[in-house]
């Protein structure tokens, strides 16, 4: 399935879904860290779609959900753009922004894939609802929306939900779950590889199992990669740092295996926050990880 002839780079400079502002500067930081040069060295044809126009803050009010209407507007526009990219047989590579933009990414993909597999690389499960979320930040609900968990206006964005199926989803790198999320993961049958599982099985076995799950009966596989899946010592520039994450080599190895599978049909990299970074270290790492997904090798 992967790779199509062209990679379409879509920047989404949007950070209202996160608890701390700054991730809206992530796409530019990733570009500044040498993304185009890296892709050029890989001789990959790249179409730069430019930044998606993001809504201005207009004091939307919702009793529990922060920036609810801005997030609906943003993801409605993002879904249309992602759908357009897929329709041209190009590979959508979405650069966030916070993880609430995943709602628009898979909403656009769902207009072309009826049984989408999803690899959710993240310290968190992002399966909260307006009732279970301790913060009201929608970046912690983005996967849940795809499964039909959440307010109708979010789940009814064209293609947004409920369009994903629990049996087609794999969480990797998880290490902080709220009580409601634990319960939902157990009851729904979503496969979750926590850091404990990675320690016990090794990343190679985890990825073998993960790829087996997301390619079984699916017609496409989307990678949603939150940079906070890595250990904060490797990736300090992100808003919700949880110690004890995926190592530098584990992350690269996982992405190299995804490239070798030739099954990934779209990807997004989110939650790079340059205002919290150390010398653009996290943005540079993100460029390297994207390169591993797209075929960069040591030899």
TrEMBL record:
Homology family: Belongs to the arginase family.
EC numbers, comma separated: 3.5.3.1
Lineage: superkingdom: Bacteria
Cofactor, how bound (note): Binds 2 manganese ions per subunit.
Cofactor(s) needed: Mn(2+)
Catalytic activity: L-arginine + H2O = urea + L-ornithine
Any one Pfam family match given in the protein's UniProt record, by short name: Arginase
Gene3D superfamilies registered for this protein in UniProt: Ureohydrolase domain
Molecular functions (GO terms): arginase activity
Key words, A-Z: Arginine metabolism, Hydrolase, Manganese, Metal-binding
Pathway the protein contributes to: Nitrogen metabolism; urea cycle; L-ornithine and urea from L-arginine: step 1/1
Protein name: Arginase
